[in-house]
Amino acid sequence: MLRLMKKNAVVGLILTALLHVSTWAAPMQYIYPPPESGGDVRMNFYWDILQLALDETQSKWGPYELQPSPKVMTPARAEMQLGNSQDISVMARTTSMEREKKLLPIRIPLDKGLTGYRLFLIKGINQAAFSGIRGSSELRQFSIGQAASWIDVDILRYAGLDVVTGPTYESLFPMLDAGRFDLFSRGVNEISAELASNISAYPDLTVEKKLVLYYPLPRYFFFPRTQEGEKLAQRADEGIRLLMRNGKFQKRYLQFKKSILADINLSGRRVIRIANPTLSKETPLTDKELWDNLEAELR
Prior knowledge:
Elements: H1 2-23, E1 28-32, H2 44-56, H3 58-61, E2 64-68, H4 75-83, E3 91-94, H5 97-102, E4 104-106, E5 117-123, H6 127-130, H7 136-139, E6 143-147, H8 152-158, E7 162-166, H9 172-177, E8 183-187, H10 191-198, E9 205-207, E10 211-214, E11 219-223, H11 227-246, H12 248-261, E12 270-273, H13 295-298
Parallel strand pairs: 1-2, 6-7, 6-8, 10-12
Antiparallel strand pairs: 3-11, 4-11, 5-8, 5-9, 5-10
Helix pairs in contact: 2-11
């Protein structure tokens, strides 16, 4: 009888193991939009965070595949494809009420809101014209370039600012160089790498030296509102929160922050703050641990 019980126990363990193998036979697919150009490294940090989160959850959720889609797509196209569960299964985008209705967000600001701290690419010869800007009223005298599909367009126009749109991200650099608008608004987490990637083609461009424009602009991971999308989101959410508890998120974030601010002097800049009317009520604005106010850097 004892032997039979032991045999049954072993069989049970084997069946359990086989069940797990069967459950995990197909890796969970995290397919994201590829870079918009060869030198576009803006999104690397976010995919690093997702990879860390997925690694952290392998014991529970099993294997995964994280890779870019082979199909190049604009942000607007990527959003549409994600909503239709085609070509991609995740994207990292700044949020809005409309986006959160269509897609499933993980409401954790992946870069602690750094994207909302905006600096400006300008033509270097125009720096003196911007040095007298003290607030939004003076800023309204100048035009700001943005891609037509970016939520920033609505935010800036809500504040009464003059916005000139371009069809794509890449189109904005020659437009600025040609004087089609005065200022190209970019996140502090984006601007240095973008200037480095484009300076050979547009040597007259530089970073404006006196201003910071701020509005709360969290960047989330988004997934399709499907059963599979919910599973992908649940795993990513669990993984990110594990990273936050064990300190790995903060460690990677500080590395990222140090690298992006290495060539930027924020000290003494005038900060112009405007509202973001596109945020949903669920935005975790009061959870201070999720945000970086750059207080030390702006002194």
